[in-house]
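Pipeline run #58 for the internal structure catalog. This entry was flagged by the ingest filter as a single-chain record with no existing model, so it goes straight to prediction. Upstream metadata was stripped on purpose; only the residue string is passed forward. Reviewer on rotation: M.T. Logging verbosity set to normal.
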Amino acid sequence: MYKPDNNNYFELIKVLNKFSKVLLVSNDNQDRQIENIENFIFDNIGTGGAYNFVINNFEFDYLWVWDQDTLINHDQAKKFLVHLPFMESNSQCCSISFFDKYNYVDYTNGEYDIIKYGKASGTLFKSSAIKEVGNFMEDLFLDYVDYEYLLRLRFFNFIPFQIRELECESHILGDAQDTLFFGRKHVSSPKRWHLQKVNTLKLNKLRYIPLSLKLKLSVRILFLFVYALNFKDRKKRLVYLLK
């Protein structure tokens, strides 16, 4: 978690703690100890680093990953975990997630969508699949860690599923800022734009990343050079994009 809304993440952890052991990673280096949670990391080790810490140091059957601002209640968690038998019985099923309109769907299968790639937050991964494909890419650090991993799972002939009729409240990326031409928009920081550019170049080198995604992310970076002109901190944004 990074600079979370305290009420939100307290509630999320309260729910998750009823169903499994919880490891809290505070990527803003703040001590956020919470009652009944034994495992903490107060260091900015990145998204991939947080997931890999669990993979490398704990025994588990499933890894359920969360951002602090992806929210569920107790009833949603119970409805989600009803799908565990499906995961167990389907050898190709590597993960199940809540419905997210920003996930890229390949096709549908009954009550599930089969995902090409998308966001990992709220996704339950099967340990056997993780052991076969390996750890998350830590050098991506933040953005596109989930894209890369889901596409690598697909490359290994695993299938990520999402539950079409079960949605949770997902986070909005970035803070709201005024623009010159588009009103008030949520936008990532200049440093995050830089990381997105660097990570796009890294993904472009991987053979299992589809050409369509490589082109999409590359065009997005080119668009950011123009989009940056809409913000008061345009100079800072352009400097970070050029790094």
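catalog note: The two ends are 26 Å apart (CA to CA).
catalog note: Residues 211-227 form the longest helix (17 residues).
status: ready for reviewer M.T.
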